[in-house]
Amino acid sequence: MKIGVPIEVKNNESRVSITPAGVFELTKRKHHVYVQTQAGLASGFEDLDYIEAGAEILSSLDAVYEKAEMIVKVKEPIEKEYALVREGQIIFTYFHFASSQALTLAMIASKAVCIAYETVEDEDGSLPLLTPMSEVAGRMATQQGAKYLEKPIRGKGILLGGVPGVPPGKVLVLGAGVVGIQAAKMAAGLGAHVTIFDINMKRLRYVNDIMPSHVVTAFSNEYNIRKHIKTADLIIGAVLIPGAKAPKLITRDMLKDMTPGTVMVDVAVDQGGCFETTRPTTHEDPTYIIDDVVHYCVTNMPGAVPYTSTLALTNVTFPYVLDIAQKGWKEACNSDPSLQKGLSLDHGKVICKEILKEMVV
Ligand SMILES: NC(=O)c1ccc[n+]([C@@H]2O[C@H](COP(=O)([O-])OP(=O)(O)OC[C@H]3O[C@@H](n4cnc5c(N)ncnc54)[C@H](O)[C@@H]3O)[C@@H](O)[C@H]2O)c1
């Protein structure tokens, strides 16, 4: 199969969809891989790395779309790519169709075969192509929070781990899912005192079993949250109710109960945020302050660490890329129920009905 790896054109997106290791595996099996020049640069891969792995470098985005039977990307195609997508071409990437009707209509019109990373689903209901990005965001949440607690960036001026003779900082993590557990683990590693909240007792039992004793669990309700925020230094929002907006667990009036310089990191910002005062921010301007409380609400946190994120993402996407290349998309989907769930559009026909729910008709 002819496989294309374009440069990601979405603002601030530095990941690349296939690494030289992936190219090596594909070309070894006689597939042909076209990589747009400099596609891997921001993730640490030079054109020469791709050439040595067997890829052919192309100079333009148009050329990659023109030659490839399957385009493997990271983010959804943006407007200038719509016209490049051809009938029958396979596009394998994150689409998030629900957030853009224009994208959905463009892909239907193109008659392409669209397979969405975010809806590939394992038997147990987990989303294997989303999990690594939650892992990155969770670990980053603590790292960012620790940084913004420093005084020059208007935090409290607290070192999360403390030092001998000075107690460590207090971290609250709202949600004990993938993001929450990774955030708690990093905070615990720094030596902070961590309290992790959830409404799912199974998750709390699991956290209680695996975490060290300075990570404690709490049932998530307004009373408990109000009590803990008074002494918290860093609050991390990591809740998710699948298919719904995040519940507002920290309301505007609660900010006055926090001490000045408290930092709040809302990882759940992409689902509307779990703080009432959350508004989406970017890596260029990640924070803002309300009532002396620092808010960090970046919507694409993994984008800031493309070296790690590219490897974490391609570790899980590549087996599917290889399968599609070897068998063709139809046979790959028919033989793998997880991948089948990712099939959103087949030559303009909507397969994943969830897409239609968000359409304005
Ligand atoms: N900003 C970013 O760059 C970025 C990156 C990755 C993921 N995310 C987002 O992070 C959020 C969390 O993702 P995840 O993978 O950890 O989800 P997850 O499903 O693994 O975990 C969510 C947890 O929230 C819990 N929860 C639900 N309601 C709650 C409540 N009222 N109080 C406390 N806990 C509650 C659930 O029981 C679950 O354990 C999602 O919105 C996801 O989209 C953002």
TrEMBL record:
<dbReference type="InterPro" id="IPR007698">
    <property type="entry name" value="AlaDH/PNT_NAD(H)-bd"/>
</dbReference>
<protein>
    <recommendedName>
        <fullName>Alanine dehydrogenase</fullName>
        <ecNumber>1.4.1.1</ecNumber>
    </recommendedName>
</protein>
<feature type="binding site">
    <location>
        <position position="15"/>
    </location>
    <ligand>
        <name>substrate</name>
    </ligand>
</feature>
<feature type="binding site">
    <location>
        <begin position="298"/>
        <end position="301"/>
    </location>
    <ligand>
        <name>NAD(+)</name>
    </ligand>
</feature>
<feature type="binding site">
    <location>
        <position position="203"/>
    </location>
    <ligand>
        <name>NAD(+)</name>
    </ligand>
</feature>
<dbReference type="InterPro" id="IPR008141">
    <property type="entry name" value="Ala_DH"/>
</dbReference>
<feature type="binding site">
    <location>
        <position position="279"/>
    </location>
    <ligand>
        <name>NAD(+)</name>
    </ligand>
</feature>
<feature type="binding site">
    <location>
        <position position="75"/>
    </location>
    <ligand>
        <name>substrate</name>
    </ligand>
</feature>
<feature type="active site" description="Proton donor/acceptor">
    <location>
        <position position="270"/>
    </location>
</feature>
<keyword id="KW-0520">NAD</keyword>
<feature type="binding site">
    <location>
        <position position="134"/>
    </location>
    <ligand>
        <name>NAD(+)</name>
    </ligand>
</feature>
<feature type="domain" description="Alanine dehydrogenase/pyridine nucleotide transhydrogenase NAD(H)-binding">
    <location>
        <begin position="149"/>
        <end position="297"/>
    </location>
</feature>
<dbReference type="GO" id="GO:0000166">
    <property type="term" value="F:nucleotide binding"/>
</dbReference>
<dbReference type="Pfam" id="PF05222">
    <property type="entry name" value="AlaDh_PNT_N"/>
</dbReference>
<dbReference type="Pfam" id="PF01262">
    <property type="entry name" value="AlaDh_PNT_C"/>
</dbReference>
<feature type="binding site">
    <location>
        <begin position="239"/>
        <end position="240"/>
    </location>
    <ligand>
        <name>NAD(+)</name>
    </ligand>
</feature>
<dbReference type="GO" id="GO:0000286">
    <property type="term" value="F:alanine dehydrogenase activity"/>
</dbReference>
<feature type="domain" description="Alanine dehydrogenase/pyridine nucleotide transhydrogenase N-terminal">
    <location>
        <begin position="4"/>
        <end position="137"/>
    </location>
</feature>
<feature type="binding site">
    <location>
        <begin position="267"/>
        <end position="270"/>
    </location>
    <ligand>
        <name>NAD(+)</name>
    </ligand>
</feature>
<feature type="binding site">
    <location>
        <position position="220"/>
    </location>
    <ligand>
        <name>NAD(+)</name>
    </ligand>
</feature>
<comment type="similarity">
    <text>Belongs to the AlaDH/PNT family.</text>
</comment>
<dbReference type="InterPro" id="IPR036291">
    <property type="entry name" value="NAD(P)-bd_dom_sf"/>
</dbReference>
<feature type="active site" description="Proton donor/acceptor">
    <location>
        <position position="96"/>
    </location>
</feature>
<dbReference type="GO" id="GO:0042853">
    <property type="term" value="P:L-alanine catabolic process"/>
</dbReference>
<keyword id="KW-0560">Oxidoreductase</keyword>
<dbReference type="GO" id="GO:0005886">
    <property type="term" value="C:plasma membrane"/>
</dbReference>
<keyword id="KW-0547">Nucleotide-binding</keyword>
<dbReference type="InterPro" id="IPR007886">
    <property type="entry name" value="AlaDH/PNT_N"/>
</dbReference>
<dbReference type="InterPro" id="IPR008143">
    <property type="entry name" value="Ala_DH/PNT_CS2"/>
</dbReference>
<feature type="binding site">
    <location>
        <position position="198"/>
    </location>
    <ligand>
        <name>NAD(+)</name>
    </ligand>
</feature>
